[in-house]
Write a structure and sequence with these properties.
This protein is α/β, with parallel strands linked by helices. It has two domains: 145 residues, Rossmann fold, CATH 3.40.50.2300; 174 residues, 3-Layer(aba) Sandwich (Rossmann fold). Helices cover 37% and strands 23% of the residues. It has ten helices and 16 strands. The strands form three sheets. It has a seven-stranded mixed beta sheet, with helices on both faces. Helix 1 runs parallel beside helix 9, helix 2 runs parallel beside helix 3 and helix 4 runs parallel beside helix 5. It is elongated. It starts with a strand and ends with a helix. The protein binds beta-D-galactofuranose (GZL) and zinc ion (ZN). The site of beta-D-galactofuranose has 14 residues, from helix 1 and strand 10. The site of beta-D-galactofuranose (GZL) has 14 residues, from helix 1 and strand 10.
């Protein structure tokens, strides 16, 4: 496979390390980099692990090859961050037949038999989308624009990734609820800055200043979209031509939220390392683990006009971004 597999263990020969094979999606975004860092720092040799890391460069076939490689190497555990939800049954069956437990992180796998994985740790992506849409509704209400027509474009993530499916679903549920909201277009920005800029350029050619809201499904797409919007001579922000919303709340994303170019940033917690370690430690003791565990996530805004939102009857505080908020994370 063209992916890079690095074995991070310096051979101590001690043999008592727990060997973990981690198949990571790629390095497409700041969020992904933070997620990889969390896994590498958790599964270190001093913590008692040998981590075999594989970067699949966003290609499922590379992830499948990496999993087969881990099975050959007789790792103790396989951790998979699946690029998209489908196409995993065969290789997960091979891992099951080889007796290697598989832990899914971040996005979900859509398999015929969920005994093909032991546990999943990640985000409630549809809730993320619903939170962002609820913030938009409250923001427009607070600005006295609750009844005005609102034209939205959705720069989606990698099509078929749980984060894309959930964030798009959350927005579309709100669009169907608010008759004055129109979803002009949904186009994949593949969670990258380059593609986000390219997609925004074509959306501006097609819709220009008809666009009121740019709903970016991660920070790197938002950075690209902002560059395209400003290059076309428009202004982003509360008092600009259009507002840009985003997901991930990476440090770079919150910095753009602090300066108002991103007006609302729904957090996506990349720190799966500790959760996965808890699961492995529980399994090592022969105990059972929860099938699904959601990580906690907040929502940030530039404009403190909205301090709380409600989704499906539950309330979520909105944190106004400050320098201190960014430094405290
Ligand atoms: C979300 C994760 C997404 C991030 C993007 O948990 O799957 O993939 O939102 C990343 O930044 O590319
Ligand atoms: Zn998330």
């Amino acid at each position: 496979s063209t992916s890079s597999t690095e074995d991070t263990k310096t051979d101590t020969g001690s043999g008592d390390l727990i060997t973990v094979g981690f198949s990571q999606v790629g390095a497409e975004s700041d969020w992904r980099t933070a997620n990889t860092e969390s896994m590498k720092s958790t599964f270190s040799e001093e913590n008692g692990y040998e981590l075999i890391f594989d970067d699949a460069q966003q290609k499922q076939e590379n992830q499948i090859a990496a999993i087969r490689n881990f099975i050959q190497q007789e790792v103790d555990y396989i951790v998979l961050a699946p690029v998209t939800e489908t196409g995993w049954d065969t290789v997960l069956q091979e891992a099951k037949d080889a007796g290697v437990p598989v832990i899914i992180v971040d996005r979900m796998v859509n398999v015929s038999d969920d005994s093909l994985y032991t546990a999943w740790v990640g985000s409630n992506f549809e809730l993320e989308g619903k939170k962002a849409a609820a913030w938009l509704y409250a923001y427009l209400q607070a600005a006295g624009k609750g009844e005005e027509p609102v034209n939205i474009v959705d720069i989606q993530g990698t099509i078929g990734a749980s984060a894309q499916i959930g964030r798009t679903a959350g927005l579309e549920a709100a669009v169907s609820e608010h008759s004055n909201w129109t979803l002009l277009a949904k186009v994949s920005g593949e969670f990258t800055q380059a593609k986000g800029q390219e997609v925004m350029e074509s959306l501006l050619k097609q819709y220009g200043d008809q666009i009121d809201v740019v709903y970016c499904e991660n920070d790197n797409e938002a950075f690209g979209a902002i560059d395209a919007i400003e290059a076309a001579g428009y202004k982003v922000g509360a008092d600009g031509d259009m507002i840009v919303m985003s997901f991930d709340s990476t440090n770079a994303g919150l910095t753009e939220t602090l300066n108002g170019k991103i007006i609302c940033n729904t957090e996506c917690n990349p720190l799966h390392g500790p959760r996965v370690q808890e699961i492995i430690q529980t399994l090592e003791k022969g105990e059972t683990v929860n099938k699904q565990e959601y990580v906690d996530e907040g929502i940030f805004s530039f404009d403190g006009a909205v301090s709380v939102i409600s989704v499906d009857g539950a309330e979520y505080p909105v944190t106004k971004v400050t320098k201190e908020v960014i430094e405290s994370r």
